[in-house]
Design brief:
The chain is of the alpha+beta class and about 80 residues long. About 25% of the residues lie in helices and about 25% in strands. It has helices at about 10-15, 30-35, 40-45; strands at about 1-5, 20, 50-55, 60, 70-75.
Length: about 80
């Protein structure tokens, strides 16, 4: 089982801080596809270029394969100013 955490506007759009699901052996990109299928707000939250992913608090590419027990976090790119 995996904890999938959402931050910033992603959390606001999907309406929850986190969900629990079985993402074992899924790529991050496939997981994002599955999340997009949850509805229009999820699709908006997970637009192609508007999300970063960390697994166990380390940034990963979308081809990363999730393992059982991994904590997955999605957040928007951050800019300073």
């Amino acid at each position: 089982m995996n904890k999938v955490i959402f931050f910033a506007q992603i959390r606001e759009l999907v309406g929850t801080e986190y969900i629990m699901l079985d993402a074992n052996q899924l790529s991050v990109s496939y997981l994002i596809e599955q999340l997009r299928d949850r509805g229009d707000l999820w699709l908006l939250a997970f637009k192609e270029s508007s999300v970063l992913c960390a697994v166990n608090q380390t940034l990963v590419d979308f081809d990363y394969i999730v393992q059982d027990g991994d904590e997955i976090a999605f957040f928007p790119p951050v800019t300073g100013g």
